[in-house]
Write the structure tokens for this entry.
Amino acid sequence: MAKQITRGKGNGTGAKQRVPGERLAKVQGSALWTSIFRPGSIFRKGYTDSPRNRSYVIMNSVLFHLHPVKVKRHAVKVSYTLCLGGLSFFLFIHLTVTGIFLMFFYRPTAAQAWNDISSLQTSVTFGLLVRNMHRWAAHLMVLSVFLHMARVFYHGAYKPPREFNWVIGIILLTLTLLLSFTGYLLPWDQLALWAVTVGTNMMGYTPVFGSQVRFVLLGGAEIGTDTLLRWYVLHVLMFPFFIVIFMAIHFWRVRKDGGISGPL
Amino acid sequence: MTEIPEHLLQRAKERRARLSGQGGGASTGDPGATESQASADDGEKIPAHLLQRSAEAGGQGAAAAASVATAAPATAAPATAAPVAAPGPAAVGPAGHTQRLLTVVKAGSIQDVKATPSDKVHVWPHLLVVEFVAALSMTAFLLVFSMFVNAPLLGLANPNLTPNPSKAPWYFLGLQELLTMFHPMVAGVTIPGMGLIALGAAGYIDKNPSQKPEDRKFAVTILTVFLMFWATLVIIGSFFRGEGFNFIMPWEQGVHDIFDF
């Protein structure tokens, strides 16, 4: 394989000719390159499309080995899953990346939050665009998680042996809503303040210890700068931490329970 | 008892015939006689000399009148005489065999194949390509949408200025709608709490094992009604609620703030 590439067609001219891909082949043959890409990687020298290499691509990649090497044929059909679970996960990654960007320009205090968002939009390169993407991806994630739940229900995939994973899924839906809701307050504008006021007033009606729940959530009797800090920590650290753990269990259980549910 | 496959019986028969042919030819030189003897043996499952030996051993205990008639010519003496009487046939089989087929263990009883073949495809490239395209399309959509539609940023939060109406985020607007009909504890805590618990317990409540929509009309109907009910409440809350959370038509106040959520 390598010889074919470096020697070209072998037409016997003898002189050193530049053949397209020669340098790439040299780089791919280097010790550094082969130490980075494990056997079976599509970036390795001499990758060929064989059943063995197709398996290696999955097994030897930290990212892809979430998947099994093979799946049922119907599971690949877009019309079956509509990609909703995968898109929810992808949107989560998207939100993490854009969220990290936003954190560089944001201070969670009542005196600074709104100004930070405002100047992010006007004086930070791509600040407005990234903020927009974060916002719309968040709404899309709520929607896609919700639709994923509906899809799974309509396919009867919540039934044994997947009944526990369905419970994990409901927890993930709740965490998604909580992540979205805690993020809602952070711009500290009129929309944020009053939407959260309506929401937390409802939680204050929890039986027996309603006022305590509200006090803990707000960090005081009214929404203020303490609430902002509290919800910021929940939004960027605590809920992401929990949702990642539950996502790991969710994906792991999908495989342990025999892959996605069978065709109808 | 496992029955012996036909081809093994056939092979044993041929082997026996050949051996008896050799042995018979050497000793008596009369192939016809051995042939008839072999064919006479065929019908019997148990060789004659073994039957004889067991009869001798049995004769010792059960000295019934009927058995005496058969045993009498073979053994006048008690069973101790039997080994002396038949040393030849015990060491070698009926037709010179040194081995005997005791039983046949069929493959199925020791190699139980549980895995049924299924139609599977490699994740790379079949699934990963689909996922990659889906992720790419989603990114493209988000990028283009975000270039044209800005996320809302209203005026600085002011606790002394309550906007009218004050609305929760859209996914909680169903609950806010319920708030207009029920006590806050029922609308804000009891109904959503019970709903989430009921939803989570679906896998334990629903005992119907079928996945086919035609077998589970009740479950499908329940969820569809629930989803439609919820979607209707969210739409009403988003577009049909004006000042004082009163019912209005969406065009009465314009749609300039349609993306303010």
About this structure: Chain A touches chain B through 87 residues (CB under 8 Å).
